[in-house]
Amino acid sequence: MPAWVRNEEERSQLLTALRSTPPPEPVRGSKKKKEEKPQPTVDRKLALLKLRDVASSSLREVLWQDSEVREILLAGLDETQPELARVLSLGVLVHLTTSRKNCSELLKNEQVRLSLSQLQSEGQPQEVQEKALLALVALAIPAFQDCQEISEDLRDVLGKAAARNRDNAQRLLVFRALWSVSTVCDSPELFFGNDKIWESLLQSLQQEEDLDVRESGLGLLSALANQQTTAHFLWGDVDDEDDPQGERVREDIFANTLRSQPARIRGRALAVLAGIVRDPQKRPSVWNYVSTASVSEDTEMSKGHEVDLGARRPRSTSSDASGRRERKGSDASATSKKSAEEQEAAERATMKDSIMAAAARTELPSVRSPALRILLELSWDETLKMSLIENNIPELLLDAWPDQRLGLKERKLCKHGHRRLVDWNKARIAEELRIERENERREQDAMQFEEDFQVMVRETPEMGQADHESHQFEDWSKRDREKTAMMKEDQSSKEFNKYLRFLLEHDRQSMESEDRRARLVREEEEAQAFAEKVRAAREQATTAAEEAAQAMKRVGGDAVLQARDAAVAAAAAAAKAKMPPRLQALFAAAEAAATGARAKEPLTQKGQLDEACKAALQVADRYSMTVEEKTAIAAEAAAAAATWTSGEERGKIARSFALATAASLGMSAEAQQEAAGAAYAAATEDIDLDVGRSSGYP
């Protein structure tokens, strides 16, 4: 018997009610209206509601494993069934899809896929379509992951459900489901390779679409753009004139980045571009993209203008004057047309202007953040660095550093991007200056050589002697010029290397200074956090010790028992607060001494110190400390408990307790003296139980 019912009798009754058919249609001539749709019986309706309740519980997987229930549910999706029965059956399926195991089995069932596809066709009741769409949306994730080989038909149905001719609420539901799928799907080709989904996605990017639909479509594209293989689909080859669809996608993405769009639309569109520019091959085309919408409009207007001019042009030329006037008018019109085209081309919107406007300081963080990510990706491209510098992108990145609305990591990346562009520009300017100086020196040397040669030719009386001397002079001049050039080049290289070393040293000092400041701030924060933790632990230990002492006092315990219970409670509270063993021992010792002093019959000072020492040793035994550690802990606990003494007296107390503890633990005489000296030196220092030392803290 299946586990989703209590007994077999209840299951048989429920299945009988589910199999009950509606009453037959009235015969011809009956008084009932023919427009009334058949309704399921009351028992069947209640049975379907019962199944829906079971499907919404933890028994949904067991329910779908029942073959008879599965057959009844699938039969309830048939078009011959009453509308209410189909709606209730779909409601059961929607609840079943909340289980991942059920989703895989539903998709592997061909009848389920066929029924859900048919219920999305035209002519189906609206409520049935809505319920079927909810089931499809719930099956979206496995349709793109585990069962993607057999779910192409369901993906087509989802693409049709998101088409422009559907209701906006329905399209928004589908797009948000696909958005969620795209964040976990490892095969973006399922989106771009499906014609229905891709076409619906392209329609959602149009300017006339609803804002929520556009935002969901752009969000889906931004999630897909983060994967490495999607840049080619979203931003094809700009030079490919045979790809009108790619140009349409680029133009739609660009139109959504304009400043006239709402902030949420711009942010999503810029996030898509941020994913595209992660591909190094797409960075130049994105940065240099120019809108083509105005180009096509200008072309059509210019063609219409030429037609009008041709219609108005006179065919007869009666005189030379009229011909001259005609030629003059045509030249003027061509000149005005050319100037108008140049002006419109200058005013044409570009992608770089849109990105720079989105990265401005006045923009919202949701728009500025993806724009800055785009600029940071573009700053890695060597071919674009000059263009970025000419458009003042380094200053734009540097302006993001004081913007507290952005995250710290993002601000640091902007600062590093600014430094990367500035350093590259410095190196470029230095190289250009070196080349320019080298060319000037070569020109001066050539001019000097020419002057020397002309003087030598004029002053030589004999041509043979002149030729001989000329050859000798050429050899000497060549060697001298090479030697001088090499010396000057070496000197220039030394100066340039010296300048580069200065820049590197300056950058290194700046980074070391920043690291030191960050380390000091971090150490101060850690010290404050540890101090707060120790104070809280001390308060907990004090409270626990007082409660334990009061409990022992109520049962008639003397001061010794009260002190020991208080020490145990204080040590337990300190251990619960994750304090190091040393602070646990000090807390226990302090509470033992304080409780013994507050008792009705208080302990003597010697008794208080003894109880403090025992409490500390008890903590040391619990943590299996060494003999030296136990000796030090006992001496320090006794010195800390002696709050009524001065520093010198605490040293003596620590020394005596260290000797006594070392002797009881079986240490040698030399080790006892060393332990006593160390305890005396440590006890003469100030002991602060509220803050404690960080030594020994894990």
From TrEMBL:
Residues 520-554 form a coiled coil. Keywords: Coiled coil. This is Uncharacterized protein. The keyword Coiled coil applies. The keyword Acetylation does not apply. Residues 1-41, 297-349 are annotated as: Disordered. InterPro entries: ARM-like, ARM-type_fold. Residues 1-12, 300-311, 338-349 have a biased composition (Basic and acidic residues). It comes from the Eukaryota. The lineage of its organism: Eukaryota, Sar, Alveolata, Dinophyceae, Suessiales.
